[in-house]
Specification:
The chain is α+β, with helices and mostly antiparallel strands. The chain has helices at 43-51, 69-72, 154-167, and strands at 4-9, 12-14, 17-19, 22-27, 30-34, 61-63, 83-85, 89-92, 95-98, 105-107, 110-114, 123-129, 132-137, 170-173, 179-180.
């Protein structure tokens, strides 16, 4: 069983503004939005969902790579029943289920990994697709960036990049176009 992945908004970081890359993952009964953060308008998230026949209430899960606003500010678009996953818990309504993220399987094709470096609390979402494994991550802002100008632990970030590169074929970076590894 493989999941489907659609990058519904390509993020950027420039002098003119910042927006996070937003992805849609579907696997079994789960409809997952990863990093619904800052975008020019909410329609940048909602319109691509509608084009795929999805309403905000159809989203079952939200994964946030880390707690910066450019990756979290639009979580509330998805209603009160959505499950939210981060580095140390799953949240739904007033319930907080503590657990480390490393190795958590949301579905057969979707696994979370703890990948600190940009922040101590970063996670990567691995998605098994027809085209290989995609890593939705902030270990890279975009293709070609040698490090991370805001990393809390640059050495750890580079080590986690190596770990993810051994597991993934494609990177969906925090602020850019997906790219193939190798």
């Amino acid at each position: 069983m493989v999941a489907t992945l659609d990058v519904i908004f390509i993020g950027y970081a420039s002098a003119d503004g910042v927006a996070g890359t937003v992805s849609l993952v579907r696997d079994e009964d789960l409809v997952i939005v990863v990093d619904p953060g800052m975008v020019p308008a909410r329609s940048a998230i909602l319109d691509p969902l509608a084009e795929r026949g999805l309403a905000p209430g159809d989203v079952t899960d939200v994964v946030i790579s880390h707690h910066h606003p450019d990756h979290t500010v639009n979580i509330a678009l998805f209603g009160e029943d959505v499950r939210i996953h981060d580095h140390w818990a799953t949240y739904r309504r007033d319930q907080w289920e503590s657990r480390p993220a490393d190795g958590v399987r949301l579905s057969p094709g979707v696994t979370l990994l703890e990948t600190p470096g940009h922040t101590p609390q970063d996670i990567t979402t691995l998605v098994q697709t027809d085209h290989g494994v995609a890593a939705l991550t902030h270990l890279w802002w975009y293709e070609g960036i040698p490090g991370d100008p805001r990393a809390t632990d640059e050495e750890r970030l580079l080590a986690e990049r190596e770990r993810v590169a051994a597991l993934a074929d494609v990177v969906v970076p925090g602020h850019g176009t997906p790219f193939r590894l190798g």
